[in-house]
Every structure is written in C-alpha cells, then in structure tokens.
Design brief:
- The protein has 2 domains: 1-77 and 256-287, 3-Layer(aba) Sandwich (Rossmann fold), CATH 3.40.50.620; 78-207 and 215-234, Rossmann fold.
- The protein is built from 10 helices and 12 strands.
- The chain has helices at 17-32, 51-64, 79-91, 102-108, 150-154, 177-180, 195-205, 221-230, 261-266, 271-277, and strands at residues 4-7, 36-41, 73-74, 95-98, 119-120, 123-124, 145-148, 162-164, 170-172, 185-187, 210-214, 237-241.
- The protein has a 3-stranded parallel β-sheet.
- Bound molecules: glutamic acid (GLU).
C-alpha cells in the first residue's frame, strides 16, 4: 500500500517551530517512501478556529517548501460524516448522554479510590455519573455531550494492537482502557463531534497509512485504535516524534507568538534556517 501521511493542524493560532518539524518530517518520510503527504484542517472547534489562521497556515507551509494535493480536507465540511459514525455507535448502545461539567467531575473525584489513576489521555477519568441516567434507545440526543461506554465497548473485544515506528518502536496494544482511559466524550455539546472521533474517521477517509505527529498525542492513540476497531476502520502505523522545546526545555505552545514561524519569517530567517533550527538538514526534505 502506498505510504500516505498527513499534517493536521488546527487553525486556532500561529504555527510554530514544532508544527514546522512535524510537517517537514511527515513530508520527508512520504518522500523517502515514494508516498504522499496530505494536509487536513482540523477546524471542528468553531469557537476557536479562524479563517485568517487557516490562510496563515497555508502561507507558512508553502514558504517552508511544502506542497500537498488539493482540495484540502476541512473538518468543518464533514460534520454529516461524523454524525453517521456517532449514529453507528449509538445504535450499538455504546454511547450515553452526559450532562456533567468539569466541576461536577472534579467534585465527584475529590475522594479518589486508592490506586485508581485519575488522569487519562483526555484529563480526568470520568467517574461514570451519567452512565445509567438516560435511556440509550430512541433517536440519538442532539445538543448534548455523548460519552463512549468504554466497558460496554471493549468487554467482548480482543483489543487490536498498533505498530509504533517513532520514539518507542514496537507493537502496542491498548492496556486496560476502562481504568486508564474511561468513558471519553465522543460528541461535545458545542461541536456535535470531538477530536478523537473526527481524526479517526478522517484518517480512514484519506487512506492514511502512517500518522506522523508529536509524542504529546501518543497517549490518545489507544483511543483512536479502539474507535477504529469499533467503527470497522483500518489502523494506520503511528510515528510519534519528540517535541521541539525552547531553550528552557519548555514545550512550545500556540500562544508563544514569539516562536511563531511568522515571527521568524519577519526577522528574515530562511526556510533552510528554520530546518537547521529544528535539526532537519535541507537534503532531509527529499531524502
Ligand atoms: N489537530 C491536532 C493538533 O493540531 C493534530 C491531530 C493529529 O495529528 O492527530 O494538535
């Protein structure tokens, strides 16, 4: 199968050196495998996504020397597809409506059970307050958060492993997802979908064979592989790379405008200068 990878930024702020590294590494790997590099705009969070940031992303990536096939997939165009996937899980009885906010959850968890981990890939592990509160029959509730019943979803399933080719290479199987992940939100009330659901549906739709992304998303991969199994979608290989940090060792964030590619461009840096800063030589781009 042809190697296909993607860079999937959210247009909620400027791209920084970490994004440049991820995108250039993905394109370099695609070039080395004679494969394809795709771009996907992850703009489901309409309260934070901006068209101006999206335009800046295209501009910065072109400046770095990247190219990608058109048209670019935009998640805001694909809500109907995400709803189909949610309908499928709802019909299987694996989703339930949840009315809790963050504070409710934190309060319920304020007396934790000994030994139980409190945090999963999505933050606090949900204590299950709403699991049996609302019926799971009838039409799928709209305008409410929907959680995956992880126990119900995985109890009769042999968990599928995935191949990691990045920092800790090998075959990895999700480990005890009820305890370590819990009932994650798959449809947010304000979005009607979620990062986890959309990313899995779209990687399959774009026939991605190799996901290249930062190690900050490695813990979320167990969720993605479980969703792929539930939705009968293929599981790509995953390549999680180290994060680019600033001189103090702090992870770069979108709000660090001083580190944005736009700022470096304005200071007169060249694309080769950026590659050198993040440890990729110019020749790395084509292999
Ligand atoms: N949209 C995500 C981000 O900007 C990346 C998603 C992914 O690569 O799976 O952090």
């Amino acid at each position: 199968m042809t190697f296909r990878t993607r860079f999937a930024p959210s247009p909620t702020g400027p791209l920084h050196l970490g994004h440049a590294y991820s995108a250039l590494l993905a394109q370099q790997m695609a070039a080395r495998h004679g494969g394809e590099f795709l771009l996907r705009v992850e703009d489901i969070d309409q309260s934070r996504a901006r068209r101006a940031w999206e335009a800046q992303i295209y501009d910065d990536l072109r400046w770095l020397g990247l190219t990608w096939p058109m048209p670019v997939m935009r998640q805001s165009d694909r809500l109907a597809t995400y709803h189909d996937a949610l309908d499928h899980l709802w019909a299987a009885g694996l989703l339930y409506r949840c009315d809790c906010n963050r504070r409710d959850i934190a309060e319920t968890l304020s007396a934790p059970q000994e030994g139980a981990p409190l945090h999963g890939p999505d933050g606090l592990i949900y204590p299950g307050t709403c699991r049996t509160k609302h019926p799971r029959t009838g039409p799928r509730p709209q305008d409410h958060a929907l959680r995956l019943d992880m126990g119900e979803a995985t109890s009769a399933m042999t968990l599928r492993p995935y191949v990691e080719t990045g920092l800790k290479p090998g075959e990895i199987a999700p480990d005890d997802p009820v305890r370590t992940i819990g009932d994650i939100v798959l449809a947010r009330r304000d979005m009607g979908t979620s990062y986890h659901l959309s990313v899995v549906v779209d990687d399959a739709a774009q026939q991605i064979t190799d996901v290249v992304r930062g190690v900050d998303l490695a813990a979320a991969t167990a969720i993605h592989v479980i969703l792929q199994q539930l939705l009968e979608l293929p599981t790509p290989r995953y390549h999680h790379h180290a994060l680019i940090r600033d001189e103090a060792g702090k992870r770069l964030a979108k709000r660090d405008d001083a580190r944005s590619l736009a700022t470096y461009r304005a200071e007169g840096r060249t694309p080769d200068g950026i590659r050198a800063m993040i440890g990729l030589s110019p020749s790395d781009l084509t292999g």
